[in-house]
Amino acid sequence: MTNLAPAPDDVMLADLAREAIMLFAGSATLILLPLLVVAILVGLVQTIFSVQESSISFLPKLAALVLVLAVSGEAMLMNLAEFLSLGLTDMVGAIR
Q1: Model-level pTM?
Q2: What is the greatest pairwise CA distance in the chain?
Q3: Domain ranges of the chain
């Protein structure tokens, strides 16, 4: 009878992949959600005033992106650095 329990390397790899997906989803949400709100508001204003200029819709979204990155960019980079540090430590531990 064979043992079907996953190897520690498989468990570590699965945990690492799950953490990477959660990090990506959290970072993407922090960036995309405010941009979505701004895009909807700008679209409503353009529809109300019948203005169809593309630069008018681009500039508020760019300003929102810069603001989001200024506010939460450091936290996202710190999360990425922590993920990489823990992931590399786990990989080195799995090799030994």
Answers
A1: 0.73
A2: 74
A3: 27-95
